Each structure stands twice: as C-alpha cells, then as structure tokens.
Amino acid sequence: MLTDEQIAGYRENGYALIENAIEPDALSAMQRATARLIERSREVSESNALFDLDEGHGPDTPRLTRIKLPHTRDAAFADVLYGARLTGMLHPLLGPDIRLHTSKLNTKAPGGGAAVEWHQDWAFYPHTNDDILAVGIMLEDVDEANGPLMIVPGTHRNPVLSHHRNGVFCGAIDPADPLFERQKAVTITGKAGDMSIHHARVLHGSAPNRSDRARKLLFFELMAADAWPLMGVAGVYQGLSAPAMWERMQENIVCGTQPTAPRLCDVPVSMPLPPPPDATSIFKVQKSGGAISAFA
Description:
This protein is of the alpha+beta class. Helices cover 21% and strands 22% of the residues.
C-alpha cells in the first residue's frame, strides 16, 4: 500500500516513487521474460507489432526502443499487472474500478538509446476525466547515466502545452515554450524493483542512454474506469464499432467493473489531430511530426 506521504506527494507533484514495490520472485520472472523477448528480436529486421527497433539493430546486436504490450506476451508481466500488490497501491489514486490503457516495455539500448522528447501523455489520449496515470517498473537499476525518466513536478495542475508543430501533432512540446520550466525537472532513479507513478498530465521525458547498460522500464498506463476516451484516440479504440469498443474496454478492466456512465470533469483538452505521417509509436510520432529535440 502507498503511504499517506506518497499519496499526498502524488497529488501535489504529479508523481511518486515507491522503493521495493515489486517482490523479488516477480521481478526475476519479468527479467527472464524480457531477456527471452529481446532474444527473439534477433530474428526481426524491421519494427512490427511486437518490437520497435532502434538504429543499429541486427541479429548480432539487438537494439530495441520498445517491446509492445508485454502483458500479452508473457504471463510474468500479466501476473504483476493484475496482482493484488499493484492494484492495492493504485486504489487510493484511481478508485476500485481500474482499466488498462496500454502496456509497453521501453528497453532503451546502451550507447545512445533513443530519447523520448518532453510531453504529456494526456496530449495523446484525452478522456472525460484525468484520473489517469502511468506506472513505471524498473527492471534494472536506473541512474543518471542511462536515460532515466525526468519529470517537472506540479505540471499536472498547469495548462496542457501545445504538442503540435507546423499544424501537425508531433507528440512533444517545443523546448522553447515559455511555460516549460526545464530547470525544475527532477530525475527518477532507483534500483530494480522500484516503481514510479506519474500523472497523465505531468510533463516528462528522457534523454538518450549514454551508458553501457540498457534501461529497461516497464510501463502500465492505467485509469479510473469511468474515464472514457474521446474519439477513441491513441489507437486503443480507434476504428472500432461501438459494440467492439465496449468489449475492448471490458477486456481491459484490471479490477472492478466498467461503468456505462462516464465521469465528466472540467479538464483541458486538445486533440492529437491532424496526425503525423507515422503514428505507430511515440518515437515515430515525434520523428515524423517534426518534434524539436530538447536533447540534441
């Protein structure tokens, strides 16, 4: 369970760090599963439904930016996602009914693994309310050298910044935006098994991995189940009929039930439209949308 201090810190700052959040056996199982998936990537020469490849990837040197939907690829990840330990930590923040948006395992490769430009998750998938967060589970030690998550505290309570460039959604803010106070950013480091939680509206990003170690960070993006997606954005529900969308939402319930009534809140919304040429991942959105790098 989260402490009162951690809950208050999340409400105030938009993030929390929980040490030793994952039990050793569960952590080891996820580490082994990750190694197996990376080994499989040696057979892949271009990004597909499972892997996003980084520059320099090959059969002798597997380099990935991401493993997609890991909870559907190996039970080790699903066991943690649906386990009472994780959901118990999330109930004070999201309530009893919790739905998964998506999962991803960012395996930032050593020696220059791709940066993620500064952004707010909310810009990608606005909903009827913003009780939405991302859980980040460190599968290996994360320090200043290997591209840790960086967050600007308190920005979940501020305006949503523009994520457009030249009239196209680019999935990143302009580093020159006067409302971007980079000097206030904090880095989220820790040991394998530690876990961060960050609000969907908090500004965050991560620099390239300049170390000789991969930065393996598992993300579960979750929300109160009464947060309904607007326009079925971000690919999770896009293109689905109403019955198919309802079925998908029920399938994505982690605990509790899916209510039929959305909870409407006064939250700022900007649609991720018009889309960039390639919207298959945040890396492709930022690149094809012409995002200005803060890490160049």
